[in-house]
Design goal:
- The protein is mainly beta and 86 residues long.
- The protein has one domain.
- The chain is 5% helix and 50% strand.
- The protein has a two-stranded antiparallel ribbon with strand order 1-4. Strands 2-3 form a two-stranded antiparallel ribbon.
- The radius of gyration is 17 Å and the shape is elongated.
- Bound molecules: zinc ion.
- Zinc ion binds next to loops.
């Protein structure tokens, strides 16, 4: 998977399926290394209260409707502000 598709998870970016026009529903397979702040109660039941992603590898981005990632690309999200604007 190219690093280009990984950028689709960034703010102001989105995925688009060129096959069907979908921009909202994708099955994204990722491998992540994270650091979590885990808060447990005295019984041992734990909840993750904060999580920091230290590394992320996008393995595959598949259009949920076409069931293929063949036509998936990354584009600017509507309203995204580029460095040349404002
Ligand atoms: Zn599609």
């Amino acid at each position: 998977m190219s690093t280009d598709l990984a950028s689709g998870l960034a703010d102001r970016k989105r995925f688009r399926c060129g096959g069907c026009g979908n921009v909202t529903r994708f099955d994204v397979e990722v491998v992540e290394r994270t650091r979590r702040f885990v808060h447990a109660d005295l019984s041992g039941a734990a909840a993750v209260e904060r999580e920091e992603v230290l590394a992320r590898e996008v393995v595959e981005v598949v259009c949920h409707w076409c069931a293929t990632g063949e036509h998936v690309a990354v584009e600017d999200a509507p309203g995204a502000v580029t460095a040349t604007e404002g």
